[in-house]
Amino acid sequence: MKFRVAAGVIAFASLLLIGRATAHAGTSSDPPAQPRHIVARAVATDQAARGVQVEYRSFSSFAEAISFVTGVDVRIAPGADIQSQTSAIQDAVKSRLLTNTLVGIDYDAASFNSGQGTLTWYVDDPNGCSAGGVFVASSMPAGWDDRVSSAQSFGGCSTWNHYQLTGMTGPYLPCTCSTMGVMDNQTSSERWAP
Ligand SMILES: [Ca+2]
Fold first, then answer.
1. Parallel, antiparallel, or unpaired: how do β-strands 37-41 and 118-123 relate?
2. How far is the CA of 61 from the centre of ligand 1 (A)?
3. What is the pLDDT of residue 32?
4. Which fold would CATH assign to domain 3-15+34-193?
5. CA 186, CA 76: separation in Å to the nearest integer?
6. Residue-wise pLDDT tens digits, 130-177
7. Of 25, 47, 48, 174, which is least surrounded by CB within 10 A?
């Protein structure tokens, strides 16, 4: 299944965006939320200038999220280390021609631990950053503002900036990194570049 032809994705994403305003209404006495695994599409800088928004949807497991982006049934055990995750993803990407490119995974937990939730980013470009592409997410999907604690880039995007404020502004940390220091739980927008 290719993401681009999945019917209703845009409508679904719109519903999620509408729901965003209430996403932070919980209190500390609420039961812990189920870990959610989000797949989001970052946009090329020229698309962003035209007002194209990040689209996203959620999955119940990290493996399902990665399988959705790669179009291959990827097996990733819960708690798999970053080497296992990376090799599973690279094997999946090698096995077919992609119209999309996975460009990075944000983790709620430090040390690339998928157990608290993941945010997998892709772009609508077969080359990712490898042919000079630059991509942005001017805000985060619902539930992911001020949440990223580690990140691993893919797709030739050796520069992945995590910004404290929306619109790629404020202090930022270039991060493929297992911990984020003062930027822990601070990311509100992101930018990918070669
Ligand atoms: Ca976090």
1. parallel
2. 17
3. 54
4. Gamma-B Crystallin; domain 1 (2.60.20)
5. 27
6. 999 999 999 999 999 999 999 999 999 999 999 999 999 999 999 999
7. 25
178 CA to middle of ligand 1, Å? 11
**Per-residue DSSP letter, 67:** H
**Distance of CA 15 from the midpoint of ligand 1 (Å):** 25
Cα–Cα distances (Å) from 113 to 5, 147, 148, 152, in that order, read 31, 13, 11, 11
Rounded to the nearest angstrom, the distance between the alpha carbon of 106 and the centre of ligand 1 is 9
Q: What is the pTM of this model?
A: 0.80
Ligand 1 center to 133 CA (angstroms): 28
Distance 110 CA to ligand 1 centre (A): 7
Angle between helices 82-94 and 62-70 in degrees, nearest 10 = 30
